[in-house]
Design goal:
11 helices; flat
């Protein structure tokens, strides 16, 4: 724990020389970035709502492939589904622009040579999230529905409501998309000197424990084998994050600059 505190202090002290902004300037910058992010989200929602029926077809496809119909119990369930679908689609469309606003907000606290990471940051963030969504949509979601509804529930008549299925769909898809961002978190911890690859390797036991706990929480299948399969990509991403942290840590970059 003391090592972590020392690394945080060193990471902060290394940046005291950076040109700073006052509290009001930070708040004004934050307000500007939030307004622009909300604007992009609204525009994305409007575009996605124009195609809400097609987007809903994508969401319902795993059920259609298994010939499982959806039901609703409230007159507004259909409308709510279309709104949630359009919001999800709009958030995905606006994500690159929102991420860029996040980068613009934190960039004043970076050195000039660190700002070159904007391209890899944007590409990796979007690519990892898309990979998590693809993994959940093509593997986890269909397998979970088949096991839970057709296998465990084969003796019963399934009545899946729009509300329940939408929540289940978003939990799986967004949960995996967010979990796949683990290397990005490790990248920023290393970039700011808070942690390094050595620290992540030392804490691998706790990392494995946390990954399996998260898998047990968000994995829709109850058996241990499925949980292990669910955790496998996150374990691989943790290893990737260690490699990224090794390259991104300030000590590594300074050593490279001295060699040059």
């Amino acid at each position: 724990m003391a090592d972590v505190i020392d690394q945080v202090r060193n990471g902060i002290s290394d940046r005291v020389e950076l040109p700073g902004m006052s509290l009001m300037e930070h708040l004004e910058e934050l307000r500007k970035r939030l307004i622009r992010s909300v604007t992009f989200l609204v525009i994305g929602f409007a575009v996605a709502y124009a195609f809400h029926e097609r987007l809903y077809g994508i969401i319902q496809k795993p059920l259609d492939d298994l010939h499982i119909p959806l039901n609703f119990t409230h007159p507004t369930d259909g409308l709510n589904l279309y709104i949630k679908t359009a919001f999800l689609g709009g958030a995905i469309l606006a994500a690159p622009f929102i991420l860029y606003q996040v980068w613009l907000f934190i960039s004043p606290g970076l050195y000039a040579h660190e700002k070159k990471y904007v391209g890899p940051f944007m590409t990796a963030t979007i690519g990892l999230f898309a990979s998590g969504v693809w993994f959940g949509y093509h593997w986890v979601l269909p397998g979970a529905i088949k096991v839970l509804v057709l296998d465990f529930g084969k003796r019963f008549h399934p009545i899946l409501t729009i509300e329940d299925y939408t929540q289940f769909f978003l939990a799986v898809i967004l949960g995996l998309g967010i979990c796949f961002e683990l290397p990005i978190l490790m990248f920023f911890l290393a970039l700011f000197g808070i942690a390094d690859a050595k620290f992540f390797l030392k804490q691998y036991r706790y990392a494995i424990l946390v990954i399996f706990l998260i898998s047990a929480i968000i994995c829709p299948l109850p058996d241990p084998v499925s949980m292990c399969l669910f955790a496998s990509p996150m374990l691989a991403l943790y290893v990737l994050g260690v490699a990224v942290a090794w390259f991104a840590h300030p000590s590594r970059r300074k050593a490279k600059e001295l060699k040059v």
